[in-house]
UniProtKB/TrEMBL annotation:
InterPro entries: Glyco_trans_1. One of its GO terms (molecular function) is glycosyltransferase activity. Keywords: Glycosyltransferase, Membrane, Transferase, Transmembrane, Transmembrane helix. It holds the Pfam family Glycos_transf_1. Residues 988-1012 have a biased composition (Basic residues). It comes from the Eukaryota. Residues 382-491 form the Glycosyl transferase family domain. Residues 1-26, 988-1037 are annotated as: Disordered. This is Glycosyl transferase family 1 domain-containing protein.
Length: 1037
């Protein structure tokens, strides 16, 4: 949606709701200013003077009545409309958004979305003009996920079933997810679309890998819980199309603001902002949800809801009983006047004109003021308790209608009862709208003949005298003529009855084609398909039979259908959300601290007293130690103890059971992850350990490795996305002995767990036994195979598969990277052979290696990735495009790097063993004997790679290049010069410490000592003196 600003959508509002050009006249003088439609109608059309004088008289009377009955002017009455006691919540929302002037149109323009689509088209053209041709392999169909709150029988399910049937015809593969089961499960099963029920009880998390899908279609406000999962990484950039057809939330926005529930309001706003596109079925909903507008609103008119409600209502209620309940007689002729859902100040003038056109019809009915007239006029607009009702009745009396013959009903009342009891329906609004009015669709579904002005959007679906009656909006007298044709002898004429019956059938499927085509074209614009995805057909190629009607027949086959009240269910859902939010707020730390201020203050006083006592005891102990002799030892022993304390200073933390168990194991499998959305797929055992690619999204209370702290380049979002799981490889390899102390190291993608191809308990035990028994030696064990990958349905060979998932440029990218890496000639274009010998390869980064071999693989990978980055960085960093993808791709290199371990393991003469993830059965792939003559052993040998690594380290250490260079950022920079420099530095530090020690000892030896003041001789005990005793006096020297 272009932007719907908070407040009143005025004439100058833009870009979401814009007044029609006829209402804009700021650039003209007063006499040149374009006049409103009503002014042109009165001044320039052929209106006779009697009608003009009569209209002016009615206008004067109405003004007097407004002064008499209303507390202020018409405009003030509209402003004070919110102050009435019992007003419909929906109407309050509409009134809160402001009103239009008479004859002024309001238009919805999704300007921001349209600009985005145009920008994407330009970028797609730029990518197609790349230096390398981009190829779409068309291996799999585009995948769509439809998400529902439940599978109850309601019109939203009918809409999505009809849409799914059409989308499947043009090439989409669809799966359905629902938070709860229901009767419509059988409908989805009958059209062969799989359904999965998400178990969300007991606060369990939703464990779905949404990255398997190219897009998600969510239906109704109740799917907010799923959207809250999609707000988190790594699902944050996945396209989401959210269809919202309820008004319930909009009616409570003012309540949330007034009661201080700002956080709840922000939660809903976050959900609306997360959706790529929010779809509404009519043009009123974007207005009442303007608070959440983020420029992503879109309107696709059309829904089976009107026909659905009309059919259900007619099946449940009798027309005659409804008339009696509403206060009408059986032989009353009821004319219903309906109009636009928007509020505008000229509404009362339109009603006056329609009532004036109805006046001649009173001659066919009893007109004595004391008798009860058989013609009844019911007007649907506003609310049932507002001041407009009083004014409207006064207008009718002044026009000459008998008292009580004109009634006013509000939109907060039962609209179905209002329409079903009517004999004739008149659309009395001259406001140009963008879609066919829903109220007319419902009236036609009830079988009522309709009379409407020949507005362009109405003329598109209504043929005059076929399925309705049309009159020119400039000439109100034609309406009177049509009324005489439609009413004969106090009843509907045969022509009108025929018009109503003809319109009833097609009205059920009035805008099906536009709705399905609108969804199809929008999905095609929003979704970005990778190179292995076959592009769907154009939506115009949907078979016409699927676009002619909704799939009613599928729902008619449901046994004992339970038609749920979607409105009451939506309000009950909001009640649950508010209750949960209030419960969370009362248990939050901030609220508890406010409730327990006195308790917290007493704890603070007690803690302060304890700290003071501890400090006093510590000082006393220090003084006591100073007074006693302590064996210090030599200075060398003291320095050694201090260094030992510093070394173990960081290890003084409490280790959990898994960490203690892990130290005694031969294998540790790391699970790289990014974002909270991956947490449900991570394991909790001593064999596994998580490694977070971002500090922000790490699991709390776990011993996961913080990759950015070990490899600072991961703090850069660009390289974090580019490296992907290789960021975890490089972070662990950087000073690996500080974090990993096991003989073997492994990795498993969280997506393998989501696809249910991760190691089972049996397979884990089998793998550990093979490793401890050294059954296969230096081996690459893997358990996710390429032949079972859904991207490889055609069972292609290695390089063909790599090309298929990389826009046809995998071979070229690898060849260029190896050429740059090994410094080969520019005309060299060979590739390491990866034969198709009936065996399989590893995908999805789920494998195990000896730790020493892993470091060798990382050494190769760092140089390869640096060469790959050197040829793509400039364009990809500037535009987001690279020739390995058809569109913008943050993870441009990821699909090439996913297969790189196979190339290294095959050509470095490592054994490759496939482990069945369920049974643990092992089968060696690409046996060494079959590789003879095909391996590039010299290219991938440790000696060659080590010498290349040292050359790069020497260049980085000595030259300090200023160019863009990824290699030094991905790990340690080590060569012989670094070792020598570090050894010299350690020697100098050691000599410096020795000299300091010698100087200190020398100072202690040569320091001046104070002379003895005197001696003290202990006196003899009393009564033990003798004649030989001598007295020694104190001498002061």
């Amino acid at each position: 949606m272009g932007s719907l600003e908070d407040g009143v959508p005025q004439k100058t509002t833009a870009p979401l709701l814009r007044s029609s050009p006829s209402s804009r006249g700021d650039r003209y003088s007063f006499f040149q200013r374009p006049r409103s439609r009503f002014a042109r109608f009165l001044l320039f059309e052929k209106v006779d003077y009697l009608q003009w004088i009569f209209t002016v008289a009615i206008f004067s009377i109405v003004l007097l009545l407004f002064e008499a009955f209303l507390p202020s002017s018409v405009e003030k009455a509209e402003v004070s409309f919110q102050e009435t006691e019992k007003i419909s919540k929906d109407w309050m929302v509409l009134k809160g958004r402001g009103s239009l002037d008479f004859g002024e149109s309001i238009w919805f323009e999704p300007s921001k979305l349209l600009e985005k689509f145009q920008r994407d088209d330009r970028e797609l053209n730029l990518s197609s003009a790349s230096t390398r041709p981009l190829v779409r392999s068309r291996v799999r169909k585009p995948q769509l996920a439809l998400v529902f709150a439940d599978l109850s029988v309601e019109p939203g399910q009918l809409l999505m079933v009809s849409l799914a049937v059409s989308l499947r015809e043009i090439g989409y593969a669809i799966e359905v997810y629902s938070l709860e089961d229901g009767p419509v499960h059988t409908v989805w099963r009958s059209i062969e679309i799989p359904v999965k029920i998400l178990q969300t009880s007991n606060k369990t998390e939703i464990t779905v890998d949404w990255l398997n899908y190219d897009g998600i279609l969510a239906n109704s406000l109740e799917t907010m819980r799923v959207l809250s999962c999609l707000i988190q990484e790594p699902f944050k950039s996945l396209p989401v199309i959210w269809t919202v057809h309820e008004r319930s939330l909009a009616t409570r926005l003012n309540q949330y603001s007034s009661t201080g529930q700002i956080q709840l309001l922000n939660n809903w706003k976050q959900a609306f902002n997360r959706a790529t596109v929010v779809i509404f079925p009519n043009y009123v909903l974007p207005m009442i949800y303007s608070t959440f507008d983020a420029g992503n609103y879109f309107v696709i008119p059309g829904s089976p809801a009107e026909a659905w409600e009309a059919n259900n209502f007619m099946a449940l209620y009798n027309r005659d009983d409804l008339r009696i309940r509403l206060g009408f007689k059986q032989d009353d002729f009821i004319v219903a006047i309906v109009g636009s859902q928007f509020s505008y100040s000229g509404l009362w003038l339109e009603h006056s004109l329609v009532l004036q056109a109805l006046l001649p019809l009173l001659r066919d009915f009893p007109s004595d003021i004391n008798s009860d007239s058989l013609i009844k006029v019911s007007i649907l607009s506003g609310n049932s308790t507002g001041n407009y009702k009083v004014a409207l009745e006064a207008i009718a009396l002044n026009l000459g209608y008998p008292r009580g013959s004109v009634r006013h009903s509000g939109i907060d009342e039962d609209v179905n009862s209002f329409l079903s009891t009517a004999d004739l329906v008149i659309y009395g609004s001259f406001l140009e709208e963008q879609s066919f009015p829903d109220i007319l669709v419902r009236a036609m579904c009830f079988g009522k003949p309709i009379i409407a002005p020949d507005l362009s959007v109405i003329r598109k679906y209504v043929d005059d005298r076929v399925n309705g009656f049309l009159f020119p909006k400039e000439n109100i007298r034609v309406l009177t003529q049509i009324l005489f044709q439609a009413v004969s002898n106090g009843k509907l004429s045969p022509l009108a009855q025929n018009v109503g019956s003809i319109a009833k059938g097609p009205a059920r499927n009035l805008i099906v084609s536009e709705t399905i085509e609108g969804y199809g074209s929008l999905i095609e614009k929003v979704l970005k398909f990778s190179s292995e995805v076959a592009h769907p057909k154009d939506v115009a190629e949907v078979p016409p039979s699927l676009k002619e009607e909704w799939q009613w027949h599928l729902f008619e086959e449901i046994e004992s259908p339970r038609y749920s009240n979607t409105t009451s269910r939506s309000y009950s859902f909001l009640d649950k959300v508010e209750e949960l939010w209030n419960h969370t707020q009362t248990e939050s730390p901030d609220v508890r601290s406010l409730m327990d201020d006195s308790f917290s203050y007493s704890i603070w006083k007690e803690e302060r007293y304890i700290q003071m006592m501890n400090a006093r005891n510590r000082r006393a102990e220090e003084q006591l130690i100073d007074r006693t002799d302590q064996p210090r030892g030599t200075w060398e022993e003291v320095y050694r103890n201090v260094r030992r304390a510093d070394r173990f200073k960081n290890d003084l933390h409490e280790r959990d059971d898994w960490e203690l168990e892990r130290t005694g194991q031969s294998l540790c499998i790391y699970e790289p992850y990014f974002g909270e959305g991956t947490w449900p797929f991570l394991h909790h055992s001593s064999l596994y350990r998580g490694i977070g690619l971002s500090t922000k999204g790490r699991r709390s209370g776990s011993d996961d490795v913080d990759a950015p702290s070990r490899l600072p380049v991961l703090n850069n979002p660009y390289y974090r996305d580019i490296l992907g799981e290789y960021g975890a490889f490089f972070a662990l390899a950087n000073r690996i002995d500080h974090v990993h102390k096991n003989a073997w190291i492994g990795f498993q993608s969280w997506r393998a767990t989501a696809k249910k191809v991760s190691l089972s308990n049996i397979a884990e035990r089998a793998l550990l036994e093979a490793i401890e028994a050294r059954r296969h030696g230096d081996t690459l064990y893997f358990w996710v195979s390429m032949e079972n990958d859904p991207r490889n349905l055609l069972q292609q060979d290695f390089w063909t598969f790599c090309d298929a998932i990389n826009a046809g440029n995998c071979r070229y990218a690898v060849s260029e990277a190896l050429q740059r890496m090994y410094g080969l000639k520019k005309d060299w274009n060979s590739l390491p052979p990866m034969p198709m010998d009936g065996d399989t390869w590893s995908v999805m980064q789920s494998w195990v290696l000896p730790t020493r071999s892993f470091l060798e693989f990382v050494m190769f990978s760092r140089m390869f990735l640096d060469s790959l980055d050197a040829q793509m960085y400039d364009e990809h960093h500037r535009t987001g495009h690279c020739y390995l993808s058809l569109s913008k791709d943050r993870h441009c290199y990821s699909r090439v790097l996913e297969l790189l371990v196979n190339v290294w393991a095959y050509h470095s003469a490592r054994r490759m063993v496939y482990v069945n993830s369920e049974t643990g059965a092992m089968q060696e792939q690409h046996r060494l004997k079959s590789r003879k003559g095909q391996m590039w052993v010299r290219w991938f040998s440790y000696t060659t790679l080590k010498s290349m690594d040292e050359d790069l380290a020497e260049e980085s250490d000595l030259d300090h290049p200023t160019r863009q260079w990824l290699w030094p950022l991905t790990g340690e920079v080590l060569w012989q010069g670094v070792f020598e420099r570090e050894r010299n530095l350690r020697y100098k530090q050691k000599e410096k410490r020795k000299q300091k020690s010698k100087d200190k000892i020398s100072r202690m030896k040569h320091r001046s000592r104070q002379k003895t003041i005197g001696k003290f001789i202990k006196p003899l005990p009393e009564g033990t003196g003798n004649s030989n005793s001598t007295v020694v006096t104190m001498s002061v020297g």
